[in-house]
Amino acid sequence: MSFLAESLSRIKPSSTIAATQRARNLAEQGRDVITLSTGEPDFDTPDNIRLAAIRAITQGRTRYTPTGGIPELRDAVARKFERENGLRFKREQIIVCSGGKHVISNAFMATLNPGDEVIIPAPYWVSYPELVALCNATSVVVPTFAASGLKLTAEALERHITPRTKWLVLNSPSNPSGAAYTRDELRALAEVLLRHPQVWTLCDDIYEHLVYDGFEFTTLAQVEPRLQDRVLTVNGVSKGYAMTGWRIGFAGGPAMLVKAMEMLQGQTTSAASSIAQWAAVEALNGPQDFIAPRREAFRERRDAVVARLNGCQGLSCAVPEGAFYVFPSCRGTIGKRAPGGKVIASDADFALELLNAEGVSVVHGEAFGAPGFFRISYASSMEQLMQACSRIERFCAALGR
């Protein structure tokens, strides 16, 4: 009999964390490594937010807080949802957790039973199916295609709904593809969901502020208010506010669900860090003028990286609407021989041989449910990104039959 829980056998380690750790290990050995596998802004947390955390410390705001978050932060989240998304929530409909992943795991653990199904469009963030598996439920992975911009269509959603479907997961803009749903695309999905009242939707909007070229961000409950009673809208301060290490995520949804999540949180982690919560109050209530220039910097990096990748032999890369990732296809390199002598048989081989040969760390597409692709995070300096692209170009040019 194994000492460890059976549930651990249902999940795998995070591929994004594993890729970053491989890069760290090589760097510790003295290799020159460029890490493009981490989903983390390279900008610093704005000064006013950091100062708010310092004030919280000096004012002694360092004790336990209510499990679902301090009232000031829950109210700030409610104002954010109304101001930016046209969604109205009462305080009891808001929960604050230790990061967006914590919000999602709370929601799944509070609702999923064995036999339940969760529809997850692929490519997907690596943690979605693992969190579903941890709850002993079933992920129904729905492939998406370039013709639909790597986004779920209404027809595909309809085909995959069964009486056991409990959740649909929508991540817009997407990690890893950067694809974002338009208002019309969300409305088409909403029409399907209205016909299936047993299906709830988890909208992961964590990259909301990072959309480009005039794209208008919208979220499902905003587009179709009739669905608001079965939508959990998830967001946080990690990406748009460069606060990944502060670990503050939040959500708005039906009070019944939020209460269940809060009860679960009270017996696991309890409240998020009090200091980080006060910093998040300042992030949401304070000046927002830093977001636009940072977004423009990301757009410039995106355009430069896409152009360079499309000049590489065997690669092709679409222009994503948002986030800070590109998701190029490496199918044109399959079957070729890497400089180290290994024949590239998969996207995982491509990523590993690129790291070995050129010291560039990316994440292979199969980890996101999309074989034949790989993910690059362009949340790095332009200089580093251009150096990485030169190495990728050199690697692709060196591939032989």
From TrEMBL:
It is an enzyme of class 2 (transferase). It holds the Pfam family Aminotran_1_2. One of its GO terms (molecular function) is pyridoxal phosphate binding. The keyword Lipid metabolism does not apply. Keywords: Aminotransferase, Pyridoxal phosphate, Transferase. Its cofactor is pyridoxal 5'-phosphate. InterPro entries: Aminotransferase_I/II_large (IPR004839), AspAT/PAT-like (IPR050596), NHTrfase_class1_PyrdxlP-BS (IPR004838), PyrdxlP-dep_Trfase (IPR015424), PyrdxlP-dep_Trfase_major (IPR015421), PyrdxlP-dep_Trfase_small (IPR015422). Its EC number is 2.6.1.-. PROSITE patterns: AA_TRANSFER_CLASS_1 (PS00105). One of its GO terms (biological process) is amino acid metabolic process. SUPFAM superfamilies: PLP-dependent transferases (SSF53383). Belongs to the class-I pyridoxal-phosphate-dependent aminotransferase family. This is Aminotransferase. It comes from Rubrivivax gelatinosus (Rhodocyclus gelatinosus).
